[in-house]
Structures are given as structure tokens and as C-alpha cells.
Write a structure and sequence with these properties.
Number of domains of chain A: 1
Number of helices of chain A: 8
Number of strands of chain A: 10
Strand content of chain A: 15-25%
CATH architecture of chain A: 3-Layer(aba) Sandwich
Structural class of chain A: alpha/beta
Largest sheet of chain B: 9 strands, mixed
Number of helices of chain B: 27
Shape of chain A: globular
Mean pLDDT of chain A: 87
Largest interface: A-B, 37 and 30 residues
Radius of gyration of chain A: 18 Å
Order of helices and strands of chain A: EEEHEEHEHHHEHEHEEH
CATH superfamily of chain A: P-loop containing nucleotide triphosphate hydrolases
Helix content of chain A: 25-40%
Number of domains of chain B: 4
Low-confidence stretches of chain B: 420-424
Number of strands of chain B: 19
Structural class of chain B: alpha+beta
Oligomer: heterodimer
């Protein structure tokens, strides 16, 4: 059996020091299997974004270990981390982060351009991905000519271009209306099922979270249980219970 | 499909057209300046080389009397007998003024003709190539230069109406010769006349102005040069045409260095524009750069993308700059022709183009280096946290570095520029430039510490006057201290250069005017039109004029003054270029109130009458001479051991590089030549108007190439001369100021982008478009006012400090604040700055409220 897609052990992340110290992650042990689609939920300041950033090698934890597809991050330098992101991880952001001067297709091919891969197959792959995210008629449009949902679908296609094992999505629907959100989530679900990408998505939208196989909850930097995916109501109730408990104590930033 | 990562940079430029265009424009102006100046300098040099080559192509050696002193009559024969000399011929020169058909003189250089007189049989001193008619052979017939003749419609067979040292005459043109293809000496015409007639017409019965030599064996020239040098002694220079050309260009080097310096300032300010512009680009692209990093772009790729952008902008700006430089050089050349500097047609060399291109690209890359470095260090996390920027406080170390760079230039810049500028030729001046540039760099580094407090201070009244807009504008500026400072400091530097420049010219003019009042204790000066004492008075004033004025009943004193540019003997350090002034020890004290150090006027002039010399202050200190010392003076006509009678306690001509002696001594040592000017004093104040009209009539009738000046005219002329030179420099600096204002547009545009959401909130809360617009205008107002105020202050400080340096060389110099010019430029900069804000302000006011609110 292959290594889990993500495995963290006793992950700690502390910002600041002394009186301004914030424990964003406080001992997180998490295992996500390859091919899973997982949503992470939690109240504001629960550490869900921090966890995603650490998994995506955007930040280094204060202590603890993390391995993605069996590769440990500890001791990797900037160059190696850059290569790791490029070859194994795809990112989808809340603000789509498309380059405004490039067409949809060019934005999708960007990871290949960065990796200096110029084979014709890349272009085919980009077309295919744009078709999968239902944008085959928008290939030559600039981001400014696309709706928010369409832009996000371009960015999903971009994240998948080099077929990374892991796709990390940070509030992918946070900036979209409900219809566009639905479209984006359907696309993610479909890609997970058909291409087998592991997808980890941070969200505070219960409907979005319910698309996943399971929903993991965080509170105060600690794992606070999980529910199976499929039911937005269950996810929303669980989150509400966490939030009402949290009201008794101040939540850091 | 994108071909490479770097090709993204090209696309990115399109998304920021305004900034890209502004930045390229800044590069263009800087490169244009540098290229223009290089072309100008190259053209001047080429003109002289060409001129010398076409006049003396066959000549191996040229003998020229020191200054414009004449060479003894017998020297030519002795040279001819010198071993190794093949042939030798002498020439005399005379300046004539052309006349209109009605007999009135044609003013300025346009009316001047320089006529060379030489023996027309056998070897001739010049290689004039005849293109039409025949060579001169007898009488007052002349040959004229081709281009000049064509432009003024003269042809063979015409007669040129002129007035010369011996009155009016008509000179028949028998031939036309070719000098160079391109010469234009500001209208000055060159002509040749047979020797015998020339001697009479020029009133120069004896002596030579120049002697041309051809060696018997070309390979033997250095040996012949040594022998002839030995023969003529130190009173004359013996040079090859190449050396002569070299010497002329050295004299122009001072001007060149100053021109290089000012174009350097423009480039420096341009560098700031580039730095700012790319800093903004990187700041704005933080999220984008972070995203590229998450996609696997390395640091090098991120840095590279900014560098590629810079290269594109630099290349476009540089190409346009080359065109601008061509235009500017043509403009400067016609300007210089207007200032009577002989310059040929534009001379473009690959070398100057390559230099300008290199300079443009290097400055662009230097400007983009730091922002590019920052781009590379953008952490990928920026892709999620966006552009939220850390507000950095300027570190204290900055202040130390700034002071270390600023103070040496402030302290010593003046001595380098004015005192040492000719010390070891270009080297000291280059040192001065480096120091001055370091000083500006220091100003730039210190800017946050100086400019921000000023902005805070200005913002107080603005906050009161414009409660919403003013407050928002002030907060925006202060929240980004480094950028605000970098924007304002470009203007500060430009303005301070204007102020330093103008304070120098104001101080020169002011101080010299004070001294002119003393030295010109006379009613009128008669001199050759278009010449100054520093030029030896050109053709001078014929002796007959003196006799005729003396004969007027209203004339009291008529004092002749001879002037001769000279390499002063005994100078131990620095340039020995100076002037010898021959005066009449009896008449001079009556028309010249110049004070002497420690001795009375009577003693001083008595000493001159005994064969002594009086020294200017700079000369005395450079030669280490004091009262009572002796000095050997040697000229083409003889030598004399002269006692130093005293020093002159005023600046005087050539900034104190003066040696004053009696006319008798001067004639004995340097040969006889007519005076450069006559100082005339009326018998009484009542008779002055009558004297003026009688002298005026005399000159108009018989000596149209002479002019008469009152003391007030003389003062104005000195002032005009100085102002004209400095104004040319100011014109160049103004370009630097324009570049700095482009930076203001840039910063404001950035401010609009950064505060899009804030502007949306304002509009949602009911702020009118005008209120939003006025916020931007207020920002511009504060930046330009702060930049200008600090510029005025810094310029005054530097001007004052540098004046100390000048004082070492030209004692008695006092600082004059250039109020009107400094303030006018500052006000203009503020007004232009507000105009510059219009574009970004419009953009801000037109933001759609909903979109602005949604902007992250």
C-alpha cells in the first residue's frame, strides 16, 4: 500500500512571542489518504488556513513533521520546496490569481511554462482541462472577460495541468455566488472521482464542505472531530456547536 | 501559447500602459540628455579637427605667440635657417566688420571677418584649396571661404564693404576656397589677403601672429620642434597641428564636464523614476508573484521577470532617447552658434550611440535591481495573503550612510568644481562629479528623515483647509514613508541643482558687479565690437582712435589698456591660464579704483612704471609670490626680471589670474600690439553727454567695428555673460525636474490602485467625485511642496557651502541667494505637480463604487 497523501504528526505553529503569542496549530495529527476529497472547516482563527499553508509548503511549522506522498518537508530548502510545489501540488485560491494579461488557455499552461515544458501535449492537456471545467468556448478570453465562477474554473484547470497528486483549495467558493460555487464544486468533485487527485479544501461554507468525502473540524489549532460528507446540514450543525462552545473564550485573530 | 516564462513580462507591460509609458519616458529623457551632450562634444571636437586639418594639412609645426602676443619680425628668418626646417611662412591676422549698404556695421559675429595676411609667393602657411576664381596676388584682394560666401551671396568679382583697424574700405573677392564641409563659426567669415596690403590694413607693420613650418624630412618633426622651441623660447608655443587641436579641445573640456554632469543629474533622477516605478510594480504584483511561486517558479524566475520588464522598458526608452538626443544636440548646436561658439554640423559617431545605449540600459537595470530582488524574495504565501504590506520604518543606519555620502560633497564640492576643476585637468573634475553624485545619493537616502517631517508639517494646514481630502491624502503619504520620500526626493534633487546653479550665478554676478563699480571708475570704454578683455580685446583699438579722442575738448583722461591671454609664469599648482594687462601707470589710476593689498594706488602704479608687476590674488597664491619677490617674464620679444610690487585686492578679470604691468614693459617683452580698450573719462560730469555724442559720431563714421560702453553697460554685459552660461545649465536641469514630476504621476497612480477599496467606501458614504479627486490633488500638492521646500533648503545649503570653496580661489566672493529663480521654479514644479495629478485623480474619481468595494 502506498503512503498516505498527507501525514502530519504533532504539528505546531506559533506566531509571535510572549503576550502576543498565538498558537495557530497546537498538535495536529492528521492523515489523508490518496484519492480522498477532504474539507476542513472551523471557526475563524481555528488554524484551518495555516494547516493548508503548511501542507502546501507555503509556510514552515514551528515544530512537528509533515509528509506529502511520503516526502518529508523537514530540511528541504527553498529550491526543493519550490520543486515540490511545482511537481506535486496544485493550488486553487479564493482570489483566483489569474494573470490579467494572459488568456484562459495561457493561464492554464502557466505551470508548464514555469517548468520549461513545451511539448505540444501540454496544449492538448490545457484544452482538455478547459473542456472538463466547461470552458471550451472561453479558451481565448482574458480573465476580465470571464465571470468569477469561470475564472475560478480556469484556476482549477491551471492547478491540474501537470497532474499533481494533491490539490489544495483555500476557500475556492469564498468569492462566488451560489450558482458559480455549485459549478466550481461539481468540477472539483468530478476531477477527484475521475482523475483520482487528492483534494483538500478549506471552507466555511457547509454546502461546499458537504461535497467532500469527509469534513474535518478544527478549533483553537486542534482537531475537533470529523463527519462524513454528503450532508450540508450535519456539517453546519457540527460547526455551529463548535462555534457556540467557542463563544465562552476569546478566539485569537 | 506562451513561448517562455519571460514572455509573460512583455504581456504584463500592457496591463500597466501608463506606468510603462512614464517609465520609458523617463529613460528616454535621461538617455536623450546623455546622447545629446555626447554628440555635442563630439561635434565640437570634430569641427576643430576638420578645421585644423583643412587649414594645416601640409603643415608640420605651428608657432603661436603666447596669448595673442606677436612674434618678432626676425624670428621667421631664424626659423628658416634652423636645421631640419624645410620651409616656413608667417601670417598676420586682422578682424574686420562688414557693413550694410548704408554704411552701418553689421552686428555680432555675423558681421565679423577674420582675414589672414601672408606672402603669396612660395610656401604658404595654409593649404586653402581654391574652388573658384584665382589665388590672391596683389593689393587688397581677398579669397573667401566657400560656405560663408554662398550663405551671404558673395561671388568672385564682388566687393565686400568692411571697416577695419584703419577705417572703411571695399575688398575685392578674387577667389573662393574650401575650408571644411561643415564649418559655421556663428557667421564669422574667414578670408586671406596678400601680406603687404594686410600689414597696412591691419595697422600691423611688424611681427607675426603665427608661423607655419614644414620639416625637410617628415620623420624629423620632433627634433625640429625641439630646436624651434629652443629658438623662440617660452614666449611662443610650438605645436603640431594635432597638438594644437588637442589644446583647443582641452579648453573646451571644462564645458564638456559640466554638460556631462548635468546630463548625469537627469539620468540620476531618471534612475529614481525607474526604481519607484518598478517598486510599485512589484508591490502591486505581490499576489501574482506569490501565485507564480506556488506554481513552482523559482526566485530567479521571479527576479528575472522583473528584469525582463526593465529591459523592455529600457530598450524602448533608450531607442527613443537616441532620437531625442539627436534633436537635442541639433538644438544645442544652434544655441551654441548663437553664443558664437564655432560648431560644425552634427557629427554622429557609433561610439557615442553605444555609450548612450549602455548608460540607458545600465541605469534602467540598476533602478530595477532592488525591486527585482524583492520580487524574487516574495514568499509564495503572498498568493493567499495578498498585497498587505509591511510598513517599514526607515532604519537609523540610513542616516549614517546618508551623512557619510552627503557631507564630503557638501564640504569639498565647491573647491573641486571651481578651484580644482582645472587642477589636473579632467581628473579633479571627475572627482568633483563623483563627490557630487554621492552627495545626491546621500540626499536620496536621507530623504525619509527630512521629507516626511516636512509633509507632516505641511499637512497641518491642509488637514484644516480640506478636512476629508487633506486628511486622507496626508495619511496615505505618511503610511508609505519610503515611497513618498523617494518620489519627493527626485524633485528635491532637481530643484536643489537649479538653486545651486542660480546661487552660483547670482553670487558671481553680484560680487562682480560690486567690483566693476570700483574697477570701472570711468565714463566710457571703447573696444572692438564683440570681444572681451579675456579674449585680448580681439583686433583691439587702433592708436589713431586714442589720438582723435584725446583731441576732443571734453575728454579728460584717455587710458589705453592692453590685454593678453597668457600662460602665467611660476604657477605651481592648477591651471596657469591667465591674462596679462598692460596699463599706463600715469593715466590708469584716474579711471580705475581697484584697491591693492597693503599698498596705496600711487605706490602700486609707481612700481609698475619702474618695470614691476602687480598680481591678481589667485595668481599670487598659486605661484606663491609675495610683494618684494621677483619674477622672470619671457615673451616673444624679450624677457625681463620683474619685481612683484603688490597684489590686487579684488577679483578682476580671469578670476584673479592676472598679471598687471606697464604698457612699456609689455611691449618690451611681448611685442607691440594695439590696446584692447580705451578707458575714457570726461573732463567734468557736465561734459559727459557732449563727449558721448562726439565719440559716438567719431566711431560711427570712421571705426564702425568699435563700440562704446558706459560703466552701466559694462556691468550688464558681465551679468549677461554669466547668466547666459548658467541658464544653459538650468535648461538642462529643468529636464531633470520634468522627469521627477513623472515620478509624481506614477506614485499617485499607485496610490489610487492601493486605495481602490478605500475610495469605494468613501464614495459609498457619500463622498462626491470631486472630493475623491481632490484627495489625489492634495497628495500631489504635499509631495511637490515638500520636495520643493527641501530642494530650496538643500540647494541653498550646498550653494552656501560651495561658495566657501570658490572663495579659496576667488577671494572676496560672497553668497547671494537666488530668490526669484529658485522660487519661480519651485512654484512651477508645484503647479505642474498638481497638473500631473489630474490623470490619476480622474481615474480615482471614476471608479465604480460597487467594483471598488469588491476590490481585494
Amino acid at each position: 500500500m502506498s503512503a498516505p497523501a498527507i501525514e502530519t504528526r504533532d504539528l505546531h505553529m506559533i506566531y509571535g512571542a510572549g503576550r502576543t503569542e498565538v498558537r495557530a496549530l497546537d498538535g495536529v495529527d492528521l492523515t489523508i489518504d490518496a484519492g480522498e476529497m477532504v474539507a476542513i472547516m472551523g471557526p475563524s482563527g481555528s488554524g484551518k488556513s495555516t494547516l493548508l499553508h503548511i501542507v502546501g509548503a507555503l509556510e514552515s511549522p514551528t515544530s512537528g513533521t509533515i509528509a506529502v506522498a511520503g516526502v518529508h518537508y523537514e530540511g528541504l530548502d527553498d529550491k526543493e520546496l519550490t520543486a515540490l510545489r511545482r511537481d506535486h501540488i496544485g493550488f486553487v485560491f479564493q482570489f483566483f490569481n489569474l494573470l490579467p494579461s494572459l488568456t484562459a488557455e495561457e493561464n492554464v499552461t502557466l505551470p508548464a511554462v514555469i517548468a520549461r515544458r513545451r511539448e505540444p501535449a501540454i496544449r492538448e492537456r490545457a484544452r482538455e482541462l478547459l473542456e472538463r471545467v466547461r470552458l471550451s468556448d472561453r479558451v481565448d478570453h482574458l480573465p476580465a472577460e470571464l465571470s468569477g465562477g469561470q475564472q475560478q474554473r480556469v484556476s482549477i484547470a491551471r492547478a491540474l495541468l501537470l497532474s499533481p497528486e494533491l490539490v489544495l483549495a483555500d476557500e475556492p467558493t469564498g468569492n462566488l455566488d451560489s450558482r458559480s460555487s455549485r459549478e466550481v464544486l461539481d468540477v472539483l468533485r468530478e476531477l477527484n472521482r475521475e482523475e483520482g487527485h487528492t483534494i483538500v479544501m478549506v471552507t466555511h461554507d457547509a454546502a461546499a464542505a458537504a461535497t467532500a468525502d469527509r469534513v474535518i473540524f478544527l478549533r483553537d489549532g486542534k482537531l475537533a472531530g470529523e463527519v462524513e460528507g454528503g450532508s450540508p446540514r450535519r456539517a453546519a450543525e457540527y460547526l455551529a456547536s463548535l462555534q457556540s462552545e467557542a463563544e465562552h473564550e476569546p478566539v485569537p485573530g | 501559447m506562451l513561448r517562455s516564462f519571460n514572455s509573460i513580462a512583455f504581456r504584463q507591460l500592457r496591463t500597466r500602459p501608463l506606468r510603462s509609458v512614464l517609465t520609458a519616458f523617463g529613460v528616454m529623457l535621461g538617455v536623450g540628455m546623455v546622447f545629446g551632450v555626447l554628440l555635442l562634444v563630439g561635434t565640437i571636437r570634430a569641427t576643430f579637427d576638420e578645421l585644423i586639418d583643412s587649414a594645416w594639412g601640409k603643415t608640420d609645426l605651428i608657432v603661436i605667440g603666447q596669448g595673442s602676443g606677436t612674434i618678432n619680425e626676425g624670428t621667421l628668418d631664424r626659423i628658416k635657417q634652423t636645421k631640419g626646417v624645410g620651409e616656413a611662412a608667417g601670417m598676420v591676422g586682422g578682424m574686420f566688420t562688414r557693413l550694410e549698404p548704408d554704411g552701418s556695421p553689421i552686428d555680432g559675429n555675423e558681421g565679423q571677418m577674420l582675414i589672414a595676411g601672408y606672402e603669396t609667393k612660395g610656401y604658404q602657411p595654409y593649404d586653402f584649396r581654391l574652388v573658384k576664381g584665382e589665388r590672391i596676388s596683389a593689393g587688397t584682394e581677398i579669397m573667401v571661404e566657400q560656405n560663408w560666401a554662398r550663405d551671404r551671396g558673395y561671388d568672385v568679382g564682388d566687393r565686400v564693404r568692411v571697416a577695419g583697424p584703419t577705417g572703411r574700405t571695399r575688398l575685392p573677392i578674387v577667389g573662393i576656397f574650401r575650408l571644411t564641409s561643415s564649418l559655421n563659426a556663428g557667421g564669422l567669415g574667414y578670408a586671406a589677403m596678400p601680406l603687404a596690403a594686410a600689414r597696412r590694413a591691419f595697422d600691423q607693420p611688424k611681427g607675426w601672429m603665427q608661423i607655419s613650418i614644414v620639416a625637410a624630412d617628415r620623420g624629423d618633426v620632433p627634433a625640429v620642434q625641439r630646436r624651434v622651441k629652443h629658438l623662440v623660447g617660452s614666449g611662443a608655443m610650438v605645436q603640431t597641428p594635432g597638438e594644437f587641436s588637442e589644446q583647443v579641445s582641452e579648453q573646451l573640456q571644462g564645458l564638456n564636464i559640466v554638460l556631462y554632469f548635468f546630463s548625469g543629474v537627469a539620468l540620476f533622477v531618471g534612475g529614481f523614476l525607474i526604481l519607484n516605478s518598478f517598486n510599485m510594480t512589484v508591490l502591486q504584483r505581490m499576489r501574482e508573484l506569490g501565485m507564480l511561486r506556488t506554481l513552482g517558479a523559482t526566485r530567479g524566475m521571479a527576479t528575472g521577470s522583473v528584469i525582463v520588464e526593465a529591459l523592455v522598458i529600457g530598450a524602448v526608452g533608450t531607442v527613443l532617447g537616441l532620437l531625442l538626443g539627436l534633436a537635442m544636440a541639433s538644438g544645442l548646436i544652434s544655441l551654441m552658434r548663437g553664443m558664437d561658439v564655432p560648431v560644425g554640423t552634427l557629427h554622429v559617431t557609433t561610439g557615442s550611440a553605444v555609450t548612450a545605449v549602455l548608460v540607458g540600459m545600465v541605469v534602467t537595470l540598476l533602478g530595477a535591481f532592488w525591486p527585482a530582488h524583492r520580487a524574487g524574495r516574495t514568499p509564495p504565501i503572498r498568493a493567499v495573503v495578498g498585497t498587505a504590506q509591511v510598513r517599514r520604518r526607515p532604519a537609523k543606519l540610513r542616516l549614517v550612510v546618508a551623512a557619510a555620502l552627503f557631507l564630503p560633497g557638501l564640504w569639498l564640492g565647491g573647491s573641486f568644481w571651481f578651484g580644482g576643476s582645472s587642477e589636473t585637468g579632467g581628473l579633479a573634475a571627475m572627482g568633483g562629479i563623483v563627490m557630487t553624485m554621492a552627495m545626491f545619493a546621500g540626499m536620496a537616502i536621507a530623504a525619509p528623515f527630512v521629507i516626511l517631517p516636512v509633509i507632516r508639517w505641511i499637512s497641518v494646514p491642509i488637514r484644516h483647509l480640506l478636512p476629508t481630502g487633506g486628511r486622507l491624502a496626508a495619511d496615505a503619504l505618511l503610511s508609505n514613508p519610503l515611497r513618498t520620500a523617494a518620489t519627493a526626493v527626485a524633485l528635491t534633487i532637481g530643484l536643489s541643482v537649479v538653486v545651486v546653479n542660480s546661487s552660483m550665478s547670482a553670487s558671481f554676478v553680484g560680487t562682480i558687479e560690486d567690483q566693476v563699480d570700483q574697477a570701472f571708475a570711468r565714463d566710457f570704454t571703447v573696444q572692438a565690437q564683440g570681444f572681451t578683455l579675456e579674449q585680448g580685446g580681439g583686433p583691439g583699438v587702433p592708436r589713431s582712435v586714442q589720438r582723435k579722442i584725446e583731441a576732443l575738448p571734453e575728454a579728460g583722461t584717455v587710458a589705453p589698456v592692453r590685454a593678453m591671454p597668457l600662460e602665467l609664469p611660476g604657477v605651481k599648482s592648477g591651471s596657469n591660464q591667465g591674462i596679462a594687462m598692460g596699463v599706463d601707470p600715469v593715466q590708469q589710476p584716474k579711471v580705475d579704483g581697484t584697491p591693492f593689498k597693503d599698498i596705496s594706488q600711487a605706490e602700486a602704479y609707481a612700481g609698475l612704471a619702474r618695470g614691476g608687476v602687480l598680481l591678481g590674488r589667485s595668481y599670487a597664491s598659486k605661484a606663491g609670490l609675495e610683494r618684494g619677490d621677483t619674477l622672470d617674464i619671457v615673451g616673444p620679444a624679450g624677457r625681463q626680471r620683474a619685481e612683484v610690487v603688490g597684489t590686487i585686492d579684488a577679483i578682476g578679470p580671469m578670476a584673479g589670474m592676472e598679471m598687471r604691468l606697464s604698457l612699456a614693459t609689455m611691449n618690451k617683452v611681448y611685442g607691440s600690439y594695439q590696446p584692447a580698450e580705451l578707458a575714457v573719462e570726461a573732463r567734468s560730469a557736465e561734459q559727459r553727454p557732449a563727449l558721448e555724442s562726439k565719440m559716438g559720431a567719431l566711431l560711427d563714421r570712421e571705426y564702425p567695428n568699435l563700440e562704446m560702453q558706459s560703466a552701466a553697460d559694462a556691468k550688464n554685459e558681465v551679468g549677461d555673460e554669466i547668466n547666459r552660461t548658467f541658464n544653459m545649465f538650468n535648461a538642462i536641469v529643468i529636464i531633470a525636474i520634468i522627469v521627477s514630476l513623472l515620478g509624481v504621476i506614477n506614485t499617485l497612480a499607485m496610490s489610487v490602485i492601493e486605495r481602490t477599496r478605500e475610495i469605494g467606501v468613501l464614495r459609498a458614504l457619500g463622498a462626491s467625485r470631486w472630493q475623491v479627486r481632490s484627495t489625489m490633488l492634495d497628495e500631489s500638492l504635499m509631495i511637490t511642496i515638500a520636495g520643493s521646500l527641501v530642494g530650496l533648503a538643500a540647494g541653498t545649503l550646498i550653494g552656501y557651502a560651495w561658495m566657501r570653496g570658490v572663495d579659496e580661489v576667488m577671494p572676496g566672493m560672497t553668497f547671494h541667494f537666488p530668490g526669484p529663480i529658485g522660487i519661480a521654479v519651485a512654484v512651477a514644479a508645484v503647479i505642474l505637480g498638481v497638473i500631473a495629478a489630474i490623470l490619476p485623480a480622474r481615474r480615482a474619481s471614476r471608479l465604480k463604487v460597487i467594483e471598488a468595494l469588491a476590490y481585494e
